[in-house]
Design goal:
The complex is a heterodimer of chains A (111) and B (116).
Chain A: E1 4-7, E2 10-13, E3 19-25, E4 31-37, E5 43-49, E6 56-57, E7 65-68, E8 74-78, E9 87-94, E10 101-102, E11 106-110
Parallel strand pairs in A: 2-11
Antiparallel strand pairs in A: 1-3, 3-8, 4-5, 4-9, 5-6, 7-8, 9-10, 9-11
Chain B: E1 9-13, E2 18-23, E3 32-38, E4 45-50, E5 55-56, E6 61-64, E7 70-75, E8 84-91, E9 94-96, E10 99-101, E11 110-115
Parallel strand pairs in B: 1-11
Antiparallel strand pairs in B: 2-7, 3-4, 3-8, 5-6, 6-7, 8-11, 9-10
Classes of the chains: A mainly beta (111), B mainly beta (116).
């Protein structure tokens, strides 16, 4: 099993550009999550999907949209990137209310 | 979810036990204590969790005080590869549409440095 995979690993955008971060898991987990981590800080929840077909806002959802495409895939979209969105983005999945499994992260720089 | 307080940093000698404390004085009866760690530039890794009783797995032990207001994560024989940021998280598991989920709120964590 690959676990949680994220693409791309690195990305540089100009202010105002859009992009979609992809996340997939092969563990048949119901729940998936998107976090961001700024330098020297803990992770903050952006959006989550408790189950296929549902999505909800987390702590810092402004400027982002998500799509739970199917049980395996959960994408994060930046419609108009801003320098404040420069961060490392982590996707995670969980089978239920127990531990979450994290992907390797996407390092995004917005100029 | 209850707020947690952890020391900013700790040191430990390789081969010795690392004891990482966490205060969660406002914890509710239905909140679990979770520990994760993040090795430099990687995604966080689950270590252990518990509700009331002490727990042990292949990675660590979790000791929760009787009043549940604090806990200690114990790495029994720390190695250099245990150098990481350790996060103590207290949370309630939620339910949506019949499927359980659990949101995690990460604080600053404790930077554990294991020395040779």
């Amino acid at each position: 099993n690959a676990g949680v995979t994220q693409t791309p690993k690195f990305q540089v955008l100009k202010t105002g550009q859009s992009m979609t971060l992809q996340c997939a898991q092969d563990m048949n987990h119901n729940s998936m999550y998107w976090y961001r981590q700024d330098p020297g800080m803990g992770l903050r929840l952006i959006y989550y999907s408790a189950s296929e077909g549902t999505t909800d806002k987390g702590e810092v959802p402004n400027g982002y949209n998500v799509s739970r495409l199917n049980k395996r895939e959960f994408s994060l979209r930046l419609e108009s990137a801003a320098p404040s969105q420069t961060s490392v983005y982590f996707c995670a999945s969980s089978p239920g209310s127990s531990e979450q499994f994290f992907g390797p992260g996407t390092r995004l720089t917005v100029l | 979810d209850a707020k947690t307080t952890q020391p900013t940093s700790m040191d430990c000698a390789e081969g010795r036990a690392a004891n990482l404390p966490c205060n969660h004085s406002t914890i509710s009866g239905n909140e679990y204590v979770y520990w994760y760690r993040q090795i430099h530039s990687q995604g966080p890794q689950y270590i252990i969790h518990g509700l009331k009783n002490n727990e042990t797995n292949e990675m660590a032990s979790l000791i929760i005080t009787e009043d549940r207001k604090s806990s200690t994560l114990i790495l029994p024989h720390a190695t250099l590869r245990d150098t990481a940021v350790y996060y103590c998280i207290v949370r309630v598991a939620g339910n949506a549409g019949g499927t359980s989920y659990g949101k995690l709120t990460f604080g600053q964590g404790t930077i554990l440095t294991v020395h040779p």
